[in-house]
Amino acid sequence: MSDDTLSDYLKARGISRRGFLKFCAATASMLALPPAAGSAIAAALASARRPSVIWLSFQECTGCTEAITRSHSPSLESLIFDAISLDYHHTLQAASGDAAEASRHQAMEQNRGNYLVVVDGSIPVKDGGVYSTIAGRTNLDILKETAAGAAAIISVGTCAAFGGLPEAQPNPTGAVPVSAIIKDKPIINVPGCPPIPVVMTGVLAHYLTFGSVPELDSLNRPRAFYGDYIHDRCYRRPYYDQGKFARSFDDEGARSGWCLYELGCRGPTTRSVCATTKWNQGTSFPIQSGHGCIGCTEPRFWDTGAFYKAISAPIGPVGTAAAVGLAAGAAVGAGMALRNRAAKKRAKEGHRTITTDDLEK
Amino acid sequence: MGEVDFLLWVRGPGLTIAVAIFLLGCVLRVFEIYTLGRTPDLSAPRENRPGSGWRTIVTRSVPSGEKVKRSAGVLVPGYLFHIGFFVCLFFFVPHIELIRGVVGIGWPGLPTPVIDLFAVITLIALLVTLATRLLNPVRRYLSTLDDWAGWTLTFLPVLTGWMAYHHLLFSYTTMLALHILTAELLLIALPFTKLAHFITLFVSRWYNGEAFARKGVAS
Amino acid sequence: MSASLERGLNALREVIDAPTASYLASCVRCGLCADACAFYTETGDPRYTPIHKLEPLRRLWRQEFTLLGRVGRLLGLSRPVTDTELAAWSELAYDGCTLCGRCSLVCPMGNDIAYMIRRFREGLAAAGHAPPGVIGAVRRTLEQGSPMGVKLQTLQAQIRRQEAETGLTIPVDVEGADYLALLSSMEIVNYPEYLGALARIFDRAGVSWTLSSEAFEATNSGIQIGVTDLAREIVLRIVNAAEKLKVKQVISPECGHAFTALRFEGPNLIGRPYGFGVVHILELLDQLHAEGRLELDGKRDGTPLTYHDPCQIARRGGVIDQPRRLLAELAADFREMHESGKMNWCCGGGGGVSANERAEPIKLKAFGVKKRQIEELGVPKLVTACANCRITLEEGLEHYNMNLEVVGLTEMVAEHLAGESKE
After folding, report:
1. What one-character DSSP code corresponds to residue A131?
2. Contact yes or no for A325 and B22 at CB 8 A
3. Quick one: which of C189, C185, C211, C186 has its CA closest to C198?
4. How many angstroms away from the CA of A304 is the closest CA of chain C?
5. In this structure, which of A171, A308, B16, C261 has its CB flanked by the most CB atoms within 10 Å?
């Protein structure tokens, strides 16, 4: 960790105070905090020591890193990211090999109890965790060791938050999320495949400002970014309600921008800010580009059925079940039919002609 | 992950089990009822047959005259909830997509505000049928566990579906899972309760129409 | 004296068929059948709900003929049908039901409840729970020839009286006649003018007809008690006589259940189709009139009058338009009841109820519907075509101090034969 404050750092980089304040105001607004919080964030961030952040990458595709670092023009988001003391990151660090591991251990010792751990990627636990190792050590061990002295853990991306792609059926490596392993530290889940960059930096900003985790939902996701369903904020919602749906890609309805429910949009069951905050500084989001939401901020989204079939379509072998049901019904029914007819036959054979004497006991 | 797992279970194994049991039950009931057979009627049928079994299947759904006046309190809510239930079930696009996923065919749906209106009408009508079942001396006297359970199993999917759409009580994911679960419970119970009338009533009306038509009366 | 629960249950097992099972499975306890039944509407007692009159039958069917029912039995979750239960249901299925079939037309599921009650009675009777009055009627039919104990001698006395009154010969046991006419006890004893009317009408129309000394009773108490074995024996008398006399058609008299028994149940009771046809007297009169063989005097009765449709003839028999065509010739001021034709209300006395002394109070209560129908019209004359309806209507009118003339349609036709002076 450096002794520079964030303010020093930004000044050195040529970021004006005004630009910095604009970022803080935008962050406050995104976190649904009152306007006054903008100055509180500015004050806190300006004097914040650049905290040590150890970024652990396990079973991941590096998409989360790509998202948070990708920028065609320098953005304040990426600067915030740069402004933390990133003491360990596979893709971004200069060091490699033993030197890289040594720097991680040093950061852990020097900042014991105060460093932030950011994790992307899930952790395989099957067969002792051999399916992902770094420097001969399993991800499982590394996570436990690194988490022990952390102040908090941010699970970035759906893999770290919920298991993601490696956890999808049949989950051959026994992939699990961070929260399945670490039980004794505050964990903030920031899912998405990848998450929206401003969401990631917004969470960091909140932590740096208030020193605490933001308000979380039942899946430990920040309510500010995961409180609403895409469906409730999607600009195509009126078409859903009117009954105007695209039936296939590039058909009349698709070109008219109609609802993509029939093409498999997971909007109704997905909580994220994609429909309002959008991507690439508010340029667009999947639905706006004509592709249904795939539900990437929700657990097990890979197992919710074919992406181009509606979310109400069945995901199990219903056809087989139907055939089995019909066949079994016929078999049992035939059995009952035989029993019933036998019972009637017995009754008929047991019939003794009734005379008037038989009408009384 | 509780609610997501719940939703994925009811969409997956839950539906599979429900469909299997539903079809098993329907086929079983058809066999066990109709293989009892009928002895052929040896009396001479009338030459002029006004009506027939097929005609009665249709006309018995169209009550008229005194029957309507006398039994309006039961007929009106009954018709309203049946019609509403069918509209909600077969003309709401997510349901149509489900059916398309199972049998491969679909059809156009109705706008959701229209479905919403029908759902509310259905819920109110169902509540009224419950009220008459509790207050009307004949209906109360006749009612068994089958009737109370049948009502509940019919009411819950409509209620939970409507609540899910309006984001009431629990999260949408949870309400949707509850909606699907209650629909699956309804499916499983259908063939084994009085709700089996959705199949048997057609044949009953046919038997009735044929028997009366033989004798010269359109029933 | 060998009625028993076991014989009763056995009889029920015999009669449970696909229609019965379909009906019982379809019932959704909507209660509309109660609104259609005079025994419920006039008493307000939900036990008289038509489908409820079948409860033991439903339980037996469910417990023995459905998978769920059998599993329930295995698990000890079901109550078997008991003799006490059947005894309690005797009143519901015999006293509180005339097999009128109105419920069968009203049930939204299409359940033919009357069909099932007829079958349920098989079990009740075999278990010894038929009402004593009805048992007596069927005994008298088999031992003496008719339910009211009318023997051949009584009939012969009536024949002589009617021959004297009409001046015509009433043929008996004439082989090769076209038509065999039957009578009901009610007519022989209470309305003997019917026989005279037949004689005059057939004489005018040139109909070749006969009575049979071996089969003059049309009423089938076996159908009313609901025992096929006994009903068969009773109907066989008619069938044998008709075949012996080689008639083309048998005429069912103005008696409701006689028509049902002979025309529709008979072949199924004896297990083969008839070699002759069966017509109701009203059908024959209508046909003769249409053929021009029955000339009426054209002097229409100016008294406002209405027609009561006997259930077994109209709703359960299909003879609805014929009486109306005849009345169009006979009456100048005919007024339909508010619910008429196939939806008319039962008089309350059919199906064995009038033979059942135990049922007297409820029968009179059920008459309340007819009372209202008549009062609504305010007519002084009521025409009908069933002797049992006639006696039930007269008793009901008397009980409620209503002053109406009740006439039989056949007699009315006979009174209006062209060129005849009124008797």
Report:
1. T
2. yes
3. C211
4. 36
5. C261
Tokens (6 digits) for C105: 């037309």
pLDDT higher than threshold 50 for residue A1: no
What value does the mean pLDDT take over residues C199-211?
93
What residues contact C222, with CB distance under 8 A and at least 6 apart? C138, C141, C228, C229, C230, C231, C232, C233, C234, C235, C261
> How far apart are alpha carbons A335 and A333 in whole angstroms?
5
Alpha-carbon distance of B84 to B91, in angstroms, equals: 10
pLDDT in tens, C223-253: 999 999 999 999 999 999 999 999 999 999 9
Put simply, the answer to whether C128 touches A359 (Cβ < 8 Å) is yes
Task: Please give the share of chain B, as a percent, with pLDDT higher than 90.
Answer: 92
Confidence bin at A2 (pLDDT 50/70/90): low
**Residue A26 buriedness (CB in 10 A; 0-12 / 13-18 / 19+):** middle
CA distance A254 to B30: 45
Q: What is the mean pLDDT of chain A?
A: 89
Interior/surface letters A269-286, b for 16+ CB within 10 angstroms, e for the rest? bbbbbbbebbbeeeeebb
Q: For chain B, how many helices (H) and strands (E)?
A: 10, 0
**Interface test with chain A among B3, B17, B21, B27, by most A beta carbons within 10 Å:** B27
In contact, A314 and B11? CB cutoff 8 Å: yes
Q: Is the pLDDT of residue A74 over 60?
A: no
Q: Which residue shows structure tokens 């909140």? A: A206
From residue C176, alpha-carbon distances to A249, C127, C159 in Å are: 85, 43, 21
The alpha carbon dihedral of B2, B7, B12, B13 has a sign of: positive
Q: Which chain C residues are within 8 Å of B32, Cβ to Cβ?
A: 21, 65-67
Residue C420 has pLDDT above 80, yes or no: no
Using a CB–CB cutoff of 8 Å, tell me whether C75 touches chain A.
Answer: no
Residue-level pLDDT at A158 = 97
Which chains neighbour A (Cβ–Cβ under 8 Å, 3 or more pairs)?
Answer: B, C
- Residue C348 has what DSSP assignment? S
Hey, are the CB atoms on B12 and A315 less than 8 Å from each other? yes
Q: How many Å apart are CA C212 and CA B53, to the nearest integer?
A: 39
Closest chain A residue to C68, measured at CA: A336
A194 prior amide bond cis, ω within 30 = yes
CB pairs under 8 A between B and C: 174
Q: CA–CA separation, C56 vs C310, rounded Å?
A: 29
Subunit contact B28:C67, Cβ cutoff 8 A: yes
The pLDDT-based confidence of B216 (bands split at 50, 70, 90) is very high
C175/C43 Cα distance (integer angstroms): 51
Ordered alpha helix ranges (H), C246-386:
256-259, 266-270, 281-290, 321-330, 360-366, 368-377
Under an 8 A CB cutoff, do B70 and C35 touch?
A: yes
Give me the residue from A299, A316, A332 closest to B4, CB to CB: A299
Give A-chain residues touching B101 at CB under 8 angstroms.
309-310, 312-314, 318
Short-list A122, A124, A164, A166, CA closest to A297:
A164
Give the mean pLDDT of B143-171.
97
Span B110-145, pLDDT tens digits = 999 999 999 999 999 999 999 999 999 999 999 999
Nearest-Cα distance to chain C for A289, in Å, is 52
Closest residue in chain B to residue A217, using alpha carbons only = B171
In percent, the amount of chain C with pLDDT more than 70 equals 99
Q: Does B107 touch chain A (CB under 8 A)?
A: no
**How many Cβ atoms from other residues are within 10 Å of residue C6's Cβ?**
12
